[in-house]
UniProtKB/TrEMBL annotation:
PANTHER family: DNA REPAIR PROTEIN RECO (PTHR33991:SF1). Involved in DNA repair and RecF pathway recombination. The lineage of its organism: Bacteria, Bacillati, Bacillota, Clostridia, Eubacteriales. Residues 1-78 form the DNA replication/recombination mediator RecO N-terminal domain. Keywords: DNA damage, DNA recombination, DNA repair. It comes from the Bacteria. GO terms for biological process: DNA recombination; double-strand break repair. This is DNA repair protein RecO. Gene3D superfamilies: Nucleic acid-binding proteins, Recombination protein O, C-terminal domain, Recombination protein O, zinc-binding domain.
């Protein structure tokens, strides 16, 4: 049995047996792992660092790809998010989406960076939750092999020199006005929504949430981001339904 030291963010907890708990975690290098926390629900054996939304330094026993907790030291807790039902519900959705895109074997450090910065933005209250959500959706999909293509017209292959630009959630491509009208299924992007989307897809991962958007452009950017995730992953998320039940209507 090997000993492994790593940093990871707790995504989800599932009780097991009478006293144990499994913690799904996202490592700093972007892998999804399951950690068995023995006696995690028994009095003094509880470790507050091995919990959901805690970014911690773990010492684990590893055998055959299975991990058992030895020690965990807290680096940062996002516990304040649990005090606001809307932000907590949104954090649960972002964590579930990251978990769905991460794998046990493939490194994707951007996943962890994006999620940590999204949780920090929600925790601080400095960014609008709906924009944090949409920015995370667009960029995490791009980092996971589902990047939308805005480099030119996806129909004729020519460059789009200036707005208006149209976009298809299903095709994942942009189009010019003539092609968009000819083939259908494309929606005209508001100029500011296009600028925000370009920023989110191309900037440094630590600056993904550093933008603002208002009005109809914000609504379009957010609506299309969620639709893009649901369509290209071909599945829904229980945590998203929960978030929708507590978030104010847009």
């Amino acid at each position: 049995m090997a000993e492994v030291k790593l940093r990871a963010l707790g995504l989800r907890e599932v009780d097991f047996g009478d006293y144990d708990r499994y913690l799904t975690a996202l490592t700093a290098d972007g892998r999804r792992i399951e950690i068995l926390c023995k006696n995690a629900r028994r009095g003094k054996k509880q470790n507050p660092a091995a919990r959901q939304f805690c970014y911690s330094e773990f010492i684990l026993y590893e055998r055959g790809g299975k991990y058992t907790l030895r020690e965990a030291g807290l680096v940062h807790s996002f516990f304040p998010l649990t005090q606001d039902i809307e932000r907590y519900a949104l954090a649960c959705y972002l964590a579930e989406l990251a978990s769905a895109l991460a794998t046990p074997d493939e490194d994707s450090p951007a996943l962890c960076v994006l999620l940590l910065h999204a949780l920090r933005a929600l925790e601080s209250g400095g960014r609008e939750p709906t924009l944090v959500k949409a920015a995370f959706e667009w960029r995490v999909m791009a980092e996971s092999g589902y990047a939308p293509d805005l480099s030119g017209c996806g129909v004729c292959g020519r460059g789009i020199e200036r707005p208006p630009v149209y976009f298809s959630v299903r095709a994942g491509t942009a189009a010019d006005g003539v092609c968009a009208e000819r083939v259908g299924g494309y929606e005209r992007l508001a100029d500011s929504a296009l600028r925000a989307l370009t920023h989110v897809l191309t900037c440094d991962t630590r600056r993904v949430y550093a933008f603002s958007l208002t009005g109809l452009a914000r609504a379009q950017f957010c609506r299309m981001g969620e639709a893009y995730v649901l369509y290209h992953l071909g599945r829904g998320f229980d945590s998203l339904a929960f978030y929708r039940s507590v978030a104010p209507l847009e």
